[in-house]
Amino acid sequence: MRILFIIITSFFVTQCTMFYTGERPVISKALITKSEAVVGYELIGWNGSVDRNKAKHILSAFVSANRFRQFRHKESIDSDFNIQLILEASPKFQFFMGENHEPVSWLAERDEKRYVVYLINRLLSLRTFFVVPDINRDDDYLLVRVMKKGKIFREYRYDIESYNFFGWLSLLAFPFDDRPNQSKIYNQIIYKFLEDSKDVF
Questions:
Q1: pTM above 0.85, yes or no
Q2: Is pLDDT at 83 greater than 60 in this prediction?
């Protein structure tokens, strides 16, 4: 019976619902004009599997926009500009899903009040067998740095904050899960960048 309980609990613990609370610009792809610029890109700070999945959506958005004559990794192209796609990430705390990339003490040093809330939430989640969901806030930002001739030319910063809910109650919120919409969300973020930087390329 105990084994069955552990299996059922583990199933609900691993259920995750994501709510995206960052920028949601609405930019028509039709407004993006074609440029003859050859552009290389570089990914910085996309370490975990979740972050790498975000990076995949972002690169797909660049390809989908078809803004540049060529858009490839900077090591494989002789480019006019290089774009550094930098993830300014909050600490990612994981439970039953591998080791954390950042030490828990990092949050205590950065934001003491938030650290206390995090500990209380984690304690309540464990004591209630995740009836109280484990909530992980990712207050991330995408920094797009445009480099020209090896020097910083322009920088653009976009809020991509989200909340991840683990536990029993996340199943009730499943119809509002933003994970299936991630591709559309990041498409709009990149379209916003291309609109903001239209005088650059």
A1: no
A2: yes
